[in-house]
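Example 257, ligand magnesium ion.
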Amino acid sequence: MDNILEIFISIVKKAGTAIADIQGQDINERYKAKGDLITRADELSHTLIENELKRYFPNIPLVLEEQANSTVPQSQFIVGDELDGTIPFARGMNEWSVSLAYIDEQPTHGVIFLPSLKILISAEKGKGCWINNKRVHITSTNRLADSVWGTELHPFLTDEHRQRFINTLSQHTLSTRCLACATAGALELLLGHTDLYINCKGGKIWDFAAGALSVEEAGGIARYIDGTKIEWNSIEMNVLLAANMKIADDALKLTIK
Ligand SMILES: [Mg+2]
């Protein structure tokens, strides 16, 4: 199938537009677990995405956030986040997205739609990354000390994560961004607004697959937070995205004890 990217774009646009229409309404906000918000928007997007994916890819397993998969299939699969950034969405902010990625041992196609920002990121392995159809190349020459870095702060971080990553890197960079939306974190790196994004804990494969592929196809670096290659074989994962190997190495030197 050679039009995976086009199909993914049509699906995220459909779901993203539908939930953008209900932002600001009563979206039945509640917790599905401690610190884990769900709304009517997540559910609406899930229904739309699942129906479309089953129609276009009837034989490919789906790993969707609201499907609550506990494991990752051994075969090729599609991973998706019906609404990344449920908290900013529910609070009327702009940093939220709908994203999909196709995984064949590693992400081969990825799409992120951020309706409030009117941004569509698309990437295909070996072919490139585009924002609103314009090719993206990350060209940062910043040192870590001159960088803005992105991360996430939430109750799932351990004291060790706070000390090793948050405290250390916030002392060795210019400033720290927390958007509560991993795909918006990847977008800021692609735009050159940040040079580093580290999500230490609490993230899932659907938060990172499309963003990591996009960053790599734009010339950046995607690794686990210990610097090793991402395996794409587990639901829970962490990620380090960097504009270049120098920034990644400098961050790793400071955070690996
Ligand atoms: Mg979600």
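Summary: The longest strand covers residues 106-114.
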